[in-house]
Write a structure and sequence with these properties.
The protein starts with a helix and ends in an 8-residue tail after the last strand. It has a single domain, classed as Protocatechuate 4,5-dioxygenase, Chain B (3-Layer(aba) Sandwich). The chain has about 325 residues and is an alpha/beta fold.
Length: about 325
């Protein structure tokens, strides 16, 4: 599935634009989002289909503009399923316990840490967004070899950012994307590279800069789950089950600081594409960080993927919150 093209075409559809404009028109106030932005929370939104992400991303985008934010550092997912050659093979090598340690470490060295696009503007469905590169510091590199060519996780967010600016006749907020690659050493289990990225993020803290992230924190069903791991649950039981599991697993990372356990469960139970980002957020907020699931639903992907139900992806809005307004280190 060429997700980058699929979601781009969706954004270019006139009905999608009208839908998003109507959402923005009704978002003049949002005390919950405004308070979280004021506290320096990292707001996490999904990158599912437009009618699923619309209400959630629109809340975040409206809040960023409404609160006078001048720069957004956006942590994107580096989808391993869409990596171009030779990176897809390198990812498999990094995780393959049958390969030599040297081979695995080399593969990990190529894919670890954050990656920033090599550009000063990002093209979206609704115009260009100014881009400030943050690479060249420990933990983040500039992508000069096409690693990000198929990546789509922040595309809808940047499109909504551009649409809001166009609707309201204001200058687009400058964005600094960092696509998060592997943050767990596959041999040692170390999350040192997550600490490096967190240290970099702390340098961006100020009243006019916000950090956001994206993640589809649950993938489940016929297109995602092996037959032997399908749950004996009715369709209407899946959403409360996975919301509770998401709450438990994020809590495992945030409150208990069990990054290894949370990574394993995020990968095996939730099939979360935020599994490499969550350690960065935890290291950034420190052991007194909090979180709140503001919205959670399972979006039906059976028609999109032409597969039998159930086939669902979580569309969730989550706030990762500092212990106080200055955050904790």
């Amino acid at each position: 599935m060429d997700w980058k093209t699929y979601y781009r075409d969706e954004m270019l559809d006139e009905e999608t634009r009208d839908y998003l404009e109507a959402l923005f028109a009704g978002l003049n106030r949002d005390e919950e989002i405004d308070s979280l932005i004021d506290r320096g929370a990292i707001l996490s939104f999904p990158h599912t289909a437009a009618h699923y992400i619309g209400p959630l991303q629109a809340r975040v985008v409206s809040g960023l503009y409404r609160n006078g934010i001048e720069r957004v550092v956006a942590l994107g997912v580096l989808h391993t399923s869409t990596l171009a050659a030779p990176y897809a093979e390198l990812y498999r090598t990094a995780l393959d316990e049958e390969r030599s340690s040297d081979e695995r470490l080399h593969a990990y060295s190529v894919l670890r840490g954050g990656f920033s696009p090599n550009c000063d503007a990002i093209d979206t469905a609704f115009g260009k967004m100014p881009c400030q590169c943050v690479a060249g510091q420990k933990g983040v590199r500039t992508d000069k070899a096409g690693l990000l060519v198929n990546e789509f996780s922040l595309d809808s967010f940047f499109s909504l950012m551009a649409l809001y600016a166009r609707m309201h006749g204001v200058s687009p907020i400058s964005v600094s994307p960092i696509y998060i690659g592997m943050t767990r050493d596959p041999l040692t289990g170390s999350f040192d590279v997550a600490s490096d990225i967190a240290r970099l993020l702390r340098g961006f803290r100020d009243e006019r800069t916000a950090i956001v992230t994206t993640g589809d924190i649950v993938h489940y069903g016929t297109a995602y789950t092996p037959a032997e791991k399908m749950l004996d649950l009715l369709d209407d039981q899946l959403e409360p089950h996975f919301r509770a599991e998401s709450q438990r697993i994020i809590s495992l990372a945030m409150e208990k600081q069990d990054l290894a356990g949370a990574f394993l469960d995020s990968n095996e139970i939730l099939r979360s594409d935020q599994r490499y980002i969550l350690p960065v957020i935890c290291q950034y907020l420190g052991n007194k960080g909090q979180f709140r699931i503001l919205s959670f639903s399972l979006s039906d992907y059976s028609l999109i993927l032409s597969t039998p139900r159930p086939c669902v992806v979580a569309s969730a809005l989550v706030a990762y919150i500092p212990a106080d307004s200055s955050s904790s280190e």
